[in-house]
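As the work plan foresaw, the team has encoded backbone shapes as discrete tokens. One protein thus recorded appears below exactly as we store it.

:::
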Amino acid sequence: MKMVMEGEASQNAGHMLMDSLETALAACARGERAGLRHIYETEAPRLLAVAERILRRRELAEEAVQDGFIQIWSRADQYEPGRGSARGWIYAVVRNRSLNMLRDGRREDLVSDDRMEALQDGGQLEELLASWHRLDRDSRLRECLAQLDEIRRRSILMAYVCGYTHGEIAGRLKLPLGTAKSWIRRGLSALRECMA
């Protein structure tokens, strides 16, 4: 019984030491799980809310927070108190992970039904065509774009003129996401070669 009480007292003392996020990060850097537990218990709900605001889907937000906690655990030694608050550093890790998920193409699942209908009904086709026709007829860019087939040219213009995501382009052109990404990547590569 005495050992159980001592263990509880030791655990409570550990929690008392974890009274700040800075202390918790330092504990993580030393490999002490109590530090990560403290950060999770005090910040996880708010971190999830931040990730969900960015990703707009609960399951993706949960994944971003989980990945964020793995990064917090493995990179806690990189936190420098003189450069900002521990809370700011922790939130930046989760926010950056969420933003990276958007950039990595998981955003295609986030296109709302209304937005997808607008993309498919050709509502911005005029903007796309107008941007193509506004290019100077003698410009090197127009010449290089003209060498691309219609669908690759359109996908590049959609991405860089209209600001569509890869997922939105795939939906608009009724293509698999990987195909849309590949066409844009190859089209840009051909443009670079042509412009050089």
The chain has a mean pLDDT of 76. The CA atoms of residues 54 and 98 lie 7 Å apart. Residues 109-195 form a domain with the Arc Repressor Mutant, subunit A fold (CATH 1.10.10.10). The chain has two domains: 6-104, 109-195.
